[in-house]
Amino acid sequence: MRPQGLLCPGTLLPGFQVTGVESSPTMRTDEQAGGAIQHMVVSVINVQQRYLLNTVRIQKLAGWLLRMAVGEGQPRAWNEVTLVLTDNEGIEPVNRVHLSRQGATDVVSFTYPPMPGEGDGRTGEVLVNVQRAIERTVSRKNWDSSKELALYIAHGFDHLTGGRDRTVTGRARMRRTELRWLRQASILGLTNDLITRE
């Protein structure tokens, strides 16, 4: 049973409605944790309708990034993480209500405690702004919108597993970690063609 999150009944945001949702089937990923195999479920939900996305490729990248983030020595177990792909209009109210910041942002992450009776595993939601990823890469060379989207996903998972960017040192550490993950993901071909039509 999932916690009362953004996409669940009793939502954290009154009036937040999910319409026209494209959802990829959930993917289980296995991770060695303390000598035992931990099963993590990664779901991708595309709530934005501006851009055509390859949610299957995004889900593969998300599962791989979650394994990387958990493998960075993070002690907490994860039952399920939902990646929500949204746009400026979708992320702005979340940013305002939960972070007390005006305007759209690139990523917002939520970690929920374990549900009673479901063991130690936590649940997380990462909201990623696809529109911002595309707008930020319009005039950039050697860095396309799929790579920017991958960076946002990595950043969200870094936050889920304890990364903090409130200081210059924290931001720099997170960025180094995320770019290292993306270099490895790129070698595996996981960062290509995430956005199929802008």
Question: Could you give a short description of this structure?
Answer:
The chain has 5 helices and 8 strands. Strands 1, 2, 3, 5, 6 and 7 form a 6-stranded mixed beta sheet that branches.
Q: Could you describe the 3D structure shown?
A:
The chain contains five helices and eight strands. The protein is α/β, with parallel strands linked by helices and 198 residues long. The chain has one domain (22-197): 3-Layer(aba) Sandwich (Collagenase (Catalytic Domain)). Strands 1, 2, 3, 5, 6 and 7 form a six-stranded mixed sheet that branches. It is globular.
Shape: globular
CATH class: Alpha Beta
Strand content: 15-25%
CATH superfamily: Metalloproteases ("zincins"), catalytic domain
